[in-house]
Amino acid sequence: MGNDAKYEQLKDIIKIYLPEDVSVDHITPESNFLEELNINSANLIDIVLDVEDVFDIQLENEDMDQMQTVNDAIEIINKKISDK
User: Among the CATH numbers 3.40.50.1820, 2.40.160.20, 1.40.20.10, 1.10.1200.10, which is that of 3-83?
Assistant: First the structure.
């Protein structure tokens, strides 16, 4: 699965947790989850859990700390998949 496919899957996960004042169109690879997409920390944990389910990976606390942007998430997903 390429990065574009992962990005689309990630976008589908993220859009569920967007606040009403943020459109799906605001999601870009460079988007910061907390600052630009206004996702609160509780919803960020939900996103992490969904990412684990969808991509069949296990994320550690350090991975979650590093996951600031959509691109960060894709890089972490790629690393976890290649480590399997």
Answer: 1.10.1200.10
CA dist., res. 61 & res. 57, Å (int):
13
Q: Could you please report the per-residue DSSP string of 63-81?
A: HHHH--BHHHHHHHHHHHH
pTM over 0.90: yes
Assign 32 to helix, strand or coil.
strand
For residue 1, pLDDT beyond 90: no
The model's pLDDT over 3-49, given as tens digits with 9 standing for 90+, comes to 999 999 999 999 999 999 999 999 999 999 999 999 999 999 999 99
- Report the C-alpha gap between 16 and 68 in whole angstroms: 18
Q: Locate the domains of the chain by residue range.
A: 3-83
- What type of residue sits at position 52? E
